[in-house]
TrEMBL record:
Signal peptide: 1-28
Family: Belongs to the metallophosphoesterase superfamily. Purple acid phosphatase family.
Catalytic reaction(s) noted: a phosphate monoester + H2O = an alcohol + phosphate
Domain Calcineurin-like phosphoesterase: 162-360
Descriptive protein name: Purple acid phosphatase
EC number: 3.1.3.2
Ranges of residues in domain Purple acid phosphatase C-terminal: 386-445
Gene name of the encoded protein: LOC111496199
Record-linked Pfam families: Metallophos (PF00149), Metallophos_C (PF14008), Pur_ac_phosph_N (PF16656)
Coiled-coil positions: none
Highest taxon, organism lineage: Eukaryota
A single GO molecular function term of this UniProt record: metal ion binding
Keywords: Glycoprotein, Hydrolase, Iron, Metal-binding, Signal, Zinc
Co-factor(s): Fe cation; Zn(2+)
């Protein structure tokens, strides 16, 4: 219902837009007139319910899981015991199976200025069955904690799967609303694509790392039950030479593991996974990507490995957007765009999700790859081979929203709005996926912006062989 009201409002605005265009002030897409009355977000205090440690001395806390291998048959389970190493074991079993499996993890800890972390456990469980509910237990005796997750279906071109998308979450009251809206969304996300900037602990004096711990406890209610796919943002850098901290990404890399494979040149900061019908590439905006850098070489070899017959959907996650028309962070993604955009277009990446800019924006399919310094061809052009770029840095962190937009709205920008929220990407089959963005002020089911994504790889190259595709022209 919300959407039809919105659509009605939209058409009125479109008509107004044509009038304005005739007067010579031609904007691109749609700038939402939605106005929040308060966009200052404050962190939840330390004694908030969402930060409460589980009962029992040294009980496992900050439990989170992520995909543990390339194909989704493995899960990395992580948790922290605050006082002592405690048990390193995970007991797990498939629902309806009498067999109890055991796996041993490893434990790490780190110091940051005058903070000493708890004991951080990472345990990879392997050879899981696809599409199966598993229970897992950490700790023993009175400290036992039990969780569950569902493995993805076996990889295949028509396997439906629903991803959640959140960025720049932080730990404010708004962050809590974003997570609640994600959990209560009738379109149930099965795994989270997280586009960077997790805890914002670095905004505290001396990067008070106890705010990494509170964040871990806050997101446990989702991240212990479905994998969160991690991307590093600038707030993961924790680079502070003035207090002797010169190892970039130190807390993040100790607390959050990802399934990279050093042998193929990936790293904890750039890697890929396949899940259901999607191939997901995670990039690092804060690591070198210049020609011949390790990340550049890895992406160059990774893209030809993507098999669109197996995984038709190619999704890229990064922190800093390549296309953003907000004033804040304007053009920060430009250097990476220059290096990687031709590949994205060449390989028909379906959608690029980024955060960093604390607002929402969706682009048209555009590319800006013709420019060679001397030819003057330096504006983005409509290009059906190009990805849709979505900025979703609106998780709700303590830096608040950015509201200042470049004017007029550039033609590549299809929709922009400064509200907190989250999105879902609902892949239906090899040709259709439905993207929807939800703002926190609305009812859980309301879609503030939505778009059918048509898989150009399949619609154009495969289906066209047998029959003309009438809806090609409407392919977003
Ligand atoms: C770390 O140092 C800061 C500044 O001196 C102080 O406020 C804080 O309490 C210290 N924290 C710990 C855990 O010692
Ligand atoms: C966070 O959200 C949950 C779920 O809606 C709610 O139970 C809890 O009280 C909230 N906590 C704070 C501090 O807002
Ligand atoms: C793919 O999903 C779309 C949207 O649900 C549907 O209209 C279409 O018929 C599906 N295609 C096939 C081949 O099932
Ligand atoms: Fe950021």
């Amino acid at each position: 219902m919300g959407i039809s009201i919105f659509r009605a409002g939209f058409s009125v605005l479109v008509i107004l837009g044509f009038v304005v265009c005739d007067l010579g002030v031609c904007n691109g897409g749609f700038t939402s007139g939605y106005v929040r009355n308060d966009y200052v977000a404050s962190d939840m205090p330390l004694d908030s319910d969402v930060f409460k440690p589980p009962p029992g001395r040294n009980a496992a806390q900050q439990v989170h899981i992520t995909q543990g291998d390339l194909e989704g048959k493995s899960v990395i389970i992580s948790w922290v015991t605050p006082e002592k190493p405690g048990s390193n074991r995970v007991v797990y079993w498939a629902e309806n199976s009498p067999i109890r499996n055991k796996a041993e993890g490893s434990v790490v800890s780190y110091k940051y200025f005058n903070y000493t972390s708890g004991f951080i456990h990472h345990c990879t469980i392997e050879n899981l069955e696809y599409d199966t509910k598993y229970f897992y237990v950490i700790g023993f005796g009175s400290l036992t904690r039990r969780f569950w997750f569902i493995t993805p279906p076996k990889i295949g071109p028509d396997v439906p799967y629903t991803f959640g998308v959140i960025g720049d979450l932080g730990q404010t009251y708004d962050s809590n609303k974003t997570l609640t809206h994600y959990e209560s969304n009738p379109t149930k996300g099965q795994a989270m694509l997280f586009v960077g900037d997790l805890s914002y602990a670095d905004r505290y004096p001396f990067h008070d790392n106890t705010r990494w711990d509170t964040w871990g406890r806050f997101v446990e209610r989702s991240a212990a039950y479905q994998p969160w796919i991690w991307t590093a943002g600038n707030h993961e850098l924790d680079y502070a030479p003035d207090i002797g901290e010169t190892e970039p990404f130190k807390p993040f890399l100790h607390l959050y593991r990802v399934p990279y494979n050093a042998l193929d040149g990936s790293s904890p900061l750039w890697y890929s996974i396949k899940r259901a019908s999607a191939h997901i590439i995670v990039l690092s905006s804060y690591s070198s990507y210049v020609k011949s850098s390790p990340q550049y070489k890895w992406l160059q070899s990774e893209l030809p490995r993507v098999n669109r017959d197996q995984t038709p959907w190619l999704i890229v996650l990064m922190h800093t957007p390549m296309y953003s028309s907000y004033v804040h962070h304007y053009m920060e993604g430009e250097s990476m765009r220059v290096v990687f955009e031709p590949w994205f277009v060449n390989y028909k990446v379906d959608v690029v999700f980024a955060g960093h800019v604390h607002a929402y924006e969706r682009s048209e399919r555009v590319s800006n790859i013709a420019y060679n310094i001397v030819n003057g061809l330096c504006s983005p052009m409509r290009n059906q081979d190009a990805p849709v770029y979505i900025t979703i840095g609106d998780g709700g962190n303590s830096e608040g929203l950015v509201t200042e937009m470049t004017e007029p709205q550039p033609r590549y920008s299809a929709y922009r709005e400064a509200s907190f929220g989250h999105a879902t990407l609902d892949i239906k089959n090899r040709t259709h996926a439905y993207f929807a963005w939800h703002r926190n002020q609305d009812e859980y089911s309301v879609e503030a912006d939505a778009l059918w994504l048509h898989n150009r790889q399949w619609i154009a190259s495969k289906l066209a062989k047998s029959a003309p595709v009438s809806h090609l022209s409407s392919a977003a």
